[in-house]
Amino acid sequence: MEIALTPALSPAGKAGRYGLTLLLIVALAVLHLALGSPLTLAAQWQLLGTPLAGLNDYQTFYASWPRLLMALLVGLALGVSGSLIQQLTQNRLMSPMTLGAASGAWLALVCCTIWLPGLAAAHGQWAALSGALSAAALVLCIAGPRGLNGLPLVLAGMTINLLLGAITAALILLHDQYVRELFMWGAGDLAQNDWHMVRWLLPQLWPLLPLILFAPRPLTLLRIGSQGAEGRGMALVPVLLLLLVALWLSAVAVTAVGLIGFICLLTPNFARSLGARTAADELLYSGVLGAALLLATDLLAVLAGQGGAGAVPTGVAAALLGAPGLLIFSLRQGNRGAALARPEPTAAGAARAPHRLLRRLPLLVLAFALASLCWLPGADGWQLAWPDALIWSMRWPRTLVALAAGTGLALAGVILQRLLRNPLASPDILGLSAGATLALVLTALLLHQPLQQNGAVAAAGSVVVLLLLLWLGRRHRYAPASMALVGISLAALLEAVLQFALTRGSADTFTILGWLAGSTYHVSGSQALWLAAEVAVLAALTFAGQRSLTLLGIGDAVAAGRGLSLGAARLGWLSLAALLTACVTSLVGPISFLGLLAPHIARLSGARRLPAQLGLAALFGAALLLLADWLGRVLIYPAQLPVGIVASVVCGLYLLGGLVLLRPRRRAS
Amino acid sequence: MKRTLYRCLALLLAIVPPTLQAQTVVRDDLGVHRFARVPQRVVSLSWESTEQLLQLGITPIGVAEGDGYRTWVVRPALPAASRSVGSRLEPNLELVAALKPDLIVIGPTLQSQLPLLSRIAPVLLFDAYRSDHDNAAKAKSVYLQLARLFDREAPARARLHALDRDLARLRTSLHRHWGAGAPPVQVIRFANSTMAYAYGGNSMPVQALQCLGLRPASTAPGLAWGIRSTPLLAMDAWSRDIVLYQQPFDQADKLFPSPLWQAMPFVRDHRFAAMRSTWSYGGLFSIYYLADAITAAMLTLPAGTGAAEPFTRPSARDCVLAAD
Predict the structure, then answer these.
(1) CB contact under 8 A, B95 and A638
(2) Could you tell me if A329 and A359 lie in one domain?
């Protein structure tokens, strides 16, 4: 591992780094005080000894000062927590938010606000905290004791995250009027109206002290352990304890100020690139740097808010600053990249032969397609009949779109997972769907127009992301990690812009949420036909070129040895996956999970070779999306659930079941 | 002979194509529509149009999100006979078709479904809220267009006159309580305990204030939909104004007792009051409901606090509800 091999900086350099950062914090704090309060610095100094008099005194004492302290505390907690998680999982793209802390808190708060509004108003922080901790505990239970520092934890975290996210999205969509008071929290806001939250947060941060004292030793052992044989690793108890502490710290921080997750991911990476090498150094320096970063972002938010653009949540500023930061950082890092790529998990269900399933799956797809055409509830209860002309014209585009979109996303998933040799790669991880959505939301925000499903704008967004990916890819020879960084940065940026749009409180909220859910509702017949044609052409191309993809999936050396031009082949496959995603996303919005899951199901069903995996995944994708679309129209009739949300929940539950069921076998092997 | 003549005339009338018969011409955001008959079975897929239709005494057979309407828009009451046909964003078109409507009224979000919808029945599209038109004037024109379509223009105009009289009554009670004038008024809705949305120009609450002869604290156009998000620290801009907040606000217990809030000049000087929950993105009559709620809130405040601005008598230019 390259980190351990790099020589540590001299003690003097280390002290200088800490000194400079602390100096920066002081400077930022002074600036924050000067700009964030109506009083001058001198007047604030005098305020220390005297009783409060005018409104400005109250504003300074009860809003500006607690806000400053909050930024420092939360930055510290998030930095340390992020570093801890990244060291434990040996994965620099992980953060507590990846393990479900934020999505758990968000879901709990939304549920509480909808069904127990009184409790949410009075004790919302406890609801959020218990949500974050329950989600994280669930992730730990699913990962199992042996999966705590490996792929199972990552998979479980992603699954829970997406599942809870989808459920929350559905709840917000169905009850949007009830949860409007939460959008500001959802965007991550440090604004305070008294010392209440600071006083709440401060005692919750006590694990920081023992952590910094006792964590470095097991963390160092863990680094050495990961270099050695797999089984020699760490004792379970310290790892579990450290994980719990990290999750606790991020949970209380999120509870206090809302969803500012990006700092967690960013800070440890910056800390490492600034020279923090040892476990103790990285942990401590991440904390200090986290405080500085959050303070800087909050300063930006304060300034932007005074610029007449209305209130700007800190989380938005964090992502606006952090997303490009992460990108530039990844550029400078070059090919040493992040440790996203991991060995593929063993296919536990490989006993079944693929060909039997291949024969049955088309029947399943046909059955679902027929159900979505002629077996749906009507005005007078369930109806099983071939639709008349009018109803037919309403139903067939949706069925066709579900079929084509499912196929397209599944194929894109297989391509990306083979290409990047990464079982977690999917179209949304590359940021292609995020790019499309971001383009739409930004257009609506900047032009002050209602958000509309504009295929051209969405496609343009995807193309921009693709160009960015290609440019980055050329510089880094399409290294998996830098590709993933684009996706992560864009997803964070998108999340921030969306939350910002939501906090503006306009009635467009509703439309934005609807688009985000991923829906086949607004697709017209001709659009459906176009999508089907596009997907068919791209699928044909995929099957035609599968030999080079197989070679790329095995390894660079093998592929090059067989006379494959690596750069050109990667460029081609990346473009193909991007095109598939752009076609689907511009029409139905982001449908996460499917592109990730379908290739896995295909492999778990025994498809080892690429053609079988492509075929099975495409059929699974189509079947899943057809089922999700049908369920979405049936579950809460006459209202409908967007297909993207249903698909996420269905896939999430499936993956969850798979993770739990497969665990005993993994242990036995 | 005469009888034969009558018969011929009747026959002639019967075979005259419907386009030549008496037609109602209605203008919406798609253009001009001609209706030969008064629609009997209406499906309304936006809350604004549902409100306007109910106000005209038309009960739609189907509405989008009926339960949500009953919770948030509330007035005028939606009869139980109206069937809910799904969400406003994605209403169930199959159910709409099954109701066999002869008119469908939609908002701009469903524009993409026009081809399908117009196969079911004639469609009227009203884009109620835009930053580039006067929302209140638009609400009035939609109301009058719908009144013409349903052949209720005379009663609709009578309702408007009655509303003008009701507004005068509200003004009188304000005058009785406040005397010659009151400080400018800012209507807000809290986003959470550190931020509020302030209604500005081209919003219904500001229109309601103008109809009451009160001076709005801010008529600068909002950033979107007539509102502007305002953090706690910027609220000292309203130091001289009356601030009315729309209920519900769940975190009231968290914010109101805090020392900072108590130090706000409008709180300290008793120029801060709650306004009962009223839908502020509604149709024409929501302006009156808002005015009613504002008046009720203003009457709870002690008179004579703050620098009073004299009451004005609203002209048709400031208030769409004022008689021309």
Answers:
(1) yes
(2) no
